[in-house]
Specification:
The protein is mainly alpha-helical. Helix content is about 60%, strand content about 0%.
């Protein structure tokens, strides 16, 4: 995606949003080209579907959206809201959770959101405590552990 879209401080216009939506297809091309990434196709292809069927790229609804994609959708939006980005400051935990709860049943699977709510505060507190460098170190450690890269 071009930086002019990724780093835009305001709302994307219709043309920019159309370009942004192509990241799903590009992601599916990437995971489809490598056998070891194949398990990621459900998340990559479905993380912008919405529980009410108004998402993209396929307009899947409810449980037709793979469970991994429904879980990732909640985590992805939470991360986007609570993380510092070049174009915005992080939102508070409470404000982010209010937005997620407002999307229950339309954007998000209510059952997934209920489960996320049970663990979100503890995870958020831990990541804030680690700070940016600590989170990067933790991610590096997990990648090495689960992908045996060391």
């Amino acid at each position: 995606m071009p930086d002019r879209i990724l780093l835009k401080p305001g709302k994307l216009d219709a043309e920019e949003f159309a370009v942004m939506k192509t990241h799903v297809v590009h992601g599916l091309d990437i995971v489809g080209s490598s056998e070891w990434l194949a398990d990621g196709a459900d998340v990559v292809g479905g993380h912008h579907e919405k529980f009410d069927g108004s998402g993209y790229p396929a307009g899947l609804k409810g449980e037709a959206i793979p469970i991994a994609a429904r879980i990732f959708a909640v985590a992805d939006v939470f991360d986007a809201l609570t993380s510092r980005r070049p174009y915005k400051e992080p939102m508070s935990f409470v404000a982010a959770m209010d937005i997620l709860h407002a999307g229950a049943g339309n954007h998000f699977d209510p059952a997934v959101l209920t489960r996320f709510t049970m663990i979100a505060a503890g995870l958020h507190d831990r990541l804030v405590e680690l700070g940016d460098d600590g989170v990067q170190d933790e991610l590096r450690r997990l990648v090495i552990r689960y992908f045996k890269l060391a």
